[in-house]
Each structure stands twice: as structure tokens, then as C-alpha cells.
Amino acid sequence: MNTIETTQQTDPREVYFTSAAWVSGLIGAVRADQLDLPTPCDEFDVRTLAGHLVATVARLIAIAELGSPDSVSPFSPDHDAASFDTLVEQARAAWADDAVLDAPVIVPWGEVPGRSAVWGYARELLVHGWDLAVATGQPAQADPALIDPVAVELRALLPAESRVPGVPFGPIVEPRSEAGPLERLANFAGRSSDGWV
Hints:
Helices cover 52% and strands 4% of the residues. By secondary structure, it is mainly alpha-helical.
């Protein structure tokens, strides 16, 4: 059994909810005077990035309950840790039934089993968490035990040759020699470290 098969059969919920706890801390530490700062994700400043992170949790809830995130905007006007945490608890309840992990659902990248959706949204948390951390001067490191399985999923889903216009990931960026696991994941997702670390 190869690594990607193993990951696809693994329960992703612990990775997702532990990543969410890390992101909550980042959002909670954002100062009011940082909300208009730019981030490595070009279309977002800090305010809209934090709101997008809130919205990703609401979209994951919709996937569990409705089979698709389409009823929920990818942008939320709420960008605070309390709103994020409330939704995370709702997501925990929505994904509590093991059967949801194997039910077919629709996500922005196609139809997948529920567990693949959770892996994808864990990736959102970690990559955008790096964006938020470096944009606001916070420590941009998460537990490698969270990052490694997400990196396996991303490498399988979006190899270098798939980086074409319309795919929401840029060309792979060569990481710095001193880059840690989270920065390397962000680089693989197309984020440049230049000017941020």
C-alpha cells in the first residue's frame, strides 16, 4: 500500500481539528492595526484572509450536512477567533458520524469521499495559517505531524504539471534551505517566502 492510499484511508478529523486550534490562536492574536496588511495570498489582506478562514469552516459544515459547500460564501464578514471557534465546534458535531467520511460529497475540486474533503480543508487551514502568521509577525510553524499527511494529499492532488491557469495554486516555489515543514508546504502550494520570512 503506498503513502497516498494510506492517507486516504486515515481519519483526517484529528489533523483538521488540531490545525483549527492552531489557526484559532493565530486569528485571536491579530491586532486591529494589522487588519489591512497584505498577505502572501495576493487577493487577501489580513481581514479578508481571516474572514475566509472562518468561511472555510462553515463550508466544511455544509459539505457534511448538505453534501456541497455551494450554499456558503467563501468569504465571511466575521474575522474573529470567537466566530471561528463556534463554527469549529459545529463542524466537530457535523463530522462526528464516521459514515460521513465515506459518503460522496461535492467540493470545489470535484466529487470525493467525505474524508478527502476534510483533508482538503485541513490544507486550507495550514497554508492560509502560514499566510496569516507571516503577514502578522507570528510564529509560522505548526506540528509536523499535522503537515506531513496534508503534504502527501496535496502532492497527489496537484503535481507540478497541473499548475495551469484557473487552478487556485501557483507554480511550485523552490523552498529555502532553512525552510521548515509548514513553509515548504506553503511553497508547494505556490507561495513565495520572499519578503515574508
